[in-house]
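Hi R.,

Quick one: here's the Uracil phosphoribosyltransferase sequence you asked about.
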Amino acid sequence: MHLHVANHPLIDHKVTVLRDASTPSPTFRLLVDELVTLLAYEATRNVRVVDHEVTTPLTVTMGTKIASPAPIIVPILRAGLGMLDGMTRLLPSAEVGFLGLKRDEETLKAITYANRLPEDLSGRQVFVLDPMLATGGSLIAAIEYVLERGATDVTCVCLLAAPEGIENVRKAVGDRADVSVVVACVDEKLNEVGYIVPGLGDAGDRLYGVV
Ligand SMILES: O=P(O)(O)OC[C@H]1O[C@H](OP(=O)(O)OP(=O)(O)O)[C@H](O)[C@@H]1O
Ligand SMILES: O=c1cc[nH]c(=O)[nH]1
Ligand SMILES: [Mg+2]
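And here's the predicted structure, written out as tokens:
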């Protein structure tokens, strides 16, 4: 597994505002959207492209276009939905599959309640979106889902990660070179109830309200 931690003052600034408990949902949603756009620059560094001839007003030249089959974006419901628009804006030809996972707050195990992914992801490049990588249980479940269906290149885009969660993902995927995690910030630790510290609280609740 390859880990890329973004290192950019604009990203740090926006993450700081996200952390602020007084930031209201509309601002929180806007910042998540902006952060995805910034992280996507790194996350899509290895997006597959093919040569593509283009006619400019002056001549014919060779450029590139996103390869076929198109990449597939998988937001993990709920909180990952807040990252979807930002990602599809940059990759408009991508397809979107949905995975609904809810962490049992007692056991901290991820429970799958929705799955709308193509059965066959053979050879597909997948971008998994989830703002929070805490114990890693949810992300590991998502990575395993798409790998079992044949995906060959999985990039996870997260905002905050706990060191414990990164370690768990690393253990789960081993030294696979085609799984990577791009994250805005690696936080200090998990607390005794599995929340990221200093973190930003419950990302789903902050985006969409307490349910
Ligand atoms: O790394 P983990 O320990 O698995 O925790 C992280 C997961 O917890 C949150 O989702 P949650 O279960 O709160 O669902 P929600 O998005 O519907 O709020 C978050 O969005 C991740 O999916
Ligand atoms: O800190 C955390 C941990 C899991 N899920 C969240 O939304 N926040
Ligand atoms: Mg939540």
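The first helix runs from residue 9 to 19.

Cheers,
M.
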